[in-house]
Task: inverse folding
């Protein structure tokens, strides 16, 4: 049953068409992540759903109700802002109880809800402090607590982890995932970080230039990208996308007809580096990055192609060494000149 | 032997700077100080040459000012017109500043510039039209006309100052209030006003001072009934000659309230006037 339905959503900023017609269906309890490069419209789309910007075209339905023209205050949505947007002149308790007080909820019930949310987020000892007496991570949790207390129909997160340091980011990511598991609330989460997308989402929506490129589960997007943009956006290090003419002949011949003039896409873990002369594809090591748990080897071929290979073992290779590349063509993605995926022979 | 200095400047330069600063301050304060002294002199002492620094103070000037012209009436008019024009001005300026700060459009900056540009014309340029309007509406020599004119002439500055203060409030805090279910009025009352109170206070104080000292419109639009303290002082520059001592006493009585008020609220005033200077 569609819980949140976007139909033909459009948004103009003056002459500029920022959102170009978005159709999306979200089920109750799903964790949806909007991901995409800067300027792709993901935050704008979130704000359209929240009601902080007006929808210029299309319709928005929530739980059977048309909320396209409803003001934010009446949509029963809660938002966690990137900058937390806590009320600086109120204590943590007052921040978290603000919405309930506006709704004229009984003070005893307000107290109970706030204390329960504070317990879940480890904020109980901070309830009387003001935001400026809190650290970044604590403010983050207050912002989340403010949303939880309302038990809204949908939670909206706008890049909530970008202002945290790396260690705290990882930790908070896990907490958000646990929270979703415990509360089971429908969530829309915007991020530019594809690791967050892959780890938190039930489904990922990849956006570019105001349009949806692909919607799918994280692994669907990883294994079956619909086009070159999605293929290169998801996955670190980036998928190797190399124009066909830069490939040695034996590999080129394996390309399907539709990919003529296009490119091949290979994930770093599908390219193995072997001793020189063992495969038809030869190359030279440019750089070795030893990350501890895995090793990345950057290789360039005489044709001008550059590949990154990922392996779990350590290597004794150094820059300048001659090597051979073992390309698993059955795992290759083939793209036509326009970037669309072409069905491959081995795929 | 080394001497430890608190600043990196040589001692001589520091002394010179201190003397110069004191000199400038005394120079600026001198007219007021002389005013203070003269108010307590007799007329004869006031015009004595060489000027007298030491004398027996007298209160007779203050008595005469109060007898000859009703000081309390003028003071009351000053208070009422300043306070009410400030309130009206804030009520008009705050919504305008809110709209400009949080819903900036293509022409917002142009409108602000235009508002400020209206202050560049000398008031006398608008004297005749406003006088005629006041006369036709039977508002001459009423407190109402002064309140309206004071509020409107200070409005550009108030909008500008409030706009600058509101801009410092992150927009997302207001959006969060909206998401929490606040109507526009609740958003303003519960979030914007508490956060913007400093800006509102200093803007209000500035407007209060400007209205209190406004002499041009008071002199031209009011007389015996609605005259403000500015009118009172002007009435002492008579064709009979200048009565220095009484003039000083009248002036002192006119500026004393606002100077005392300003002294107590100087922190807010300075903050309001220097916002944005250090960012």
Result:
């Amino acid at each position: 049953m569609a819980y949140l339905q976007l139909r033909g959503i459009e948004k103009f900023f003056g002459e500029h068409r920022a959102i170009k017609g978005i159709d999306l269906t979200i089920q109750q309890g799903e964790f949806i992540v909007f991901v995409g490069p800067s300027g792709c419209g993901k935050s704008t789309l979130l704000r359209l759903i929240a009601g902080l910007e007006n929808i210029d075209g299309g319709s928005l339905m929530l739980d059977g109700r048309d909320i396209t023209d409803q003001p934010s205050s009446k949509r029963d949505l809660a938002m966690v802002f990137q900058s937390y947007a806590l009320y600086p002149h109120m204590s943590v308790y007052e921040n978290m109880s603000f919405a309930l007080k506006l709704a004229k909820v009984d003070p005893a019930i307000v107290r109970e809800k706030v204390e329960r949310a504070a317990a879940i987020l480890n904020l109980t000892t901070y309830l009387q402090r003001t935001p400026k007496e809190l650290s970044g991570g604590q403010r983050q949790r207050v912002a989340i607590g403010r949303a939880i207390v309302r038990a809204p129909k949908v939670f909206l997160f706008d890049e909530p982890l970008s202002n945290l340091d790396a260690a705290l980011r990882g930790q908070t990511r896990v907490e958000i995932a646990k929270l979703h598991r415990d509360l089971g609330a429908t969530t829309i989460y915007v991020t530019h970080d594809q690791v967050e997308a892959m780890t938190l989402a039930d489904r990922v929506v990849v956006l570019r230039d105001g349009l949806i490129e692909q919607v799918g589960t994280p692994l669907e997007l990883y294994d079956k990208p619909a086009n070159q943009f999605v293929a290169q956006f998801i996955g670190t290090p980036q998928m190797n996308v190399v124009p066909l003419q830069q490939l040695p002949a034996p590999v080129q011949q394996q390309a399907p007809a539709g990919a003529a003039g296009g490119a091949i896409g290979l994930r770093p873990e599908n390219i193995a580096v072997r001793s020189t002369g063992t495969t038809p594809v030869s190359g030279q090591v440019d750089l070795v990055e030893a990350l501890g748990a895995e090793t990345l080897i950057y290789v360039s071929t005489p044709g001008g192609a550059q590949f990154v290979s990922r392996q779990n073992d350590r290597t004794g290779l150094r820059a300048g060494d001659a090597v051979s590349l073992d390309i698993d063509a059955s795992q290759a993605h083939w793209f036509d000149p326009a970037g669309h995926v072409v069905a491959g022979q081995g795929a | 032997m080394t001497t430890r200095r608190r600043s990196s400047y040589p001692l001589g330069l520091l002394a010179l700077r201190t003397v110069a600063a004191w000199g400038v301050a005394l120079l600026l304060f001198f007219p007021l100080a002389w005013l203070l002294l003269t108010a307590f002199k007799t007329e004869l002492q006031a015009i004595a040459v060489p000027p007298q620094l030491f004398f027996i103070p007298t209160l007779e000037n203050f008595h005469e000012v109060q007898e000859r012209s009703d000081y309390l009436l003028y003071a009351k008019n000053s208070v009422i017109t300043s306070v009410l024009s400030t309130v009206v001005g804030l009520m008009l300026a705050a919504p305008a500043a809110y709209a400009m700060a949080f819903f900036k459009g293509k022409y917002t900056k142009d409108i602000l510039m235009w508002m400020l540009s209206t202050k560049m014309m000398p008031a006398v340029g608008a004297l005749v039209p406003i006088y005629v309007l006041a006369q036709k509406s039977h508002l001459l020599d009423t407190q109402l006309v002064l309140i309206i004119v004071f509020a409107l002439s200070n409005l550009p500055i108030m909008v500008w100052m409030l706009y600058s203060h509101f801009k410092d409030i992150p927009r997302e805090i207001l959006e969060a209030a909206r998401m929490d279910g606040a109507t526009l009025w609740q958003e303003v009352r519960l979030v914007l006003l508490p956060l913007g109170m400093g800006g509102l206070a200093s803007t209000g104080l500035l407007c209060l001072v400007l209205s209190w000292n406004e002499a041009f419109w008071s002199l031209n639009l009011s007389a015996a009934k609605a005259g403000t303290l500015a009118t009172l002082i002007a009435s002492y520059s008579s064709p009979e000659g200048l009565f220095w001592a009484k003039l000083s006493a009248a002036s002192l009585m006119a500026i004393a309230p606002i100077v005392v008020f300003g002294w107590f609220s100087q922190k807010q005033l300075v903050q309001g006037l220097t916002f944005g200077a250090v960012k």
Chain B touches chain A through 17 residues (CB under 8 Å). Chain B has a mean pLDDT of 86.
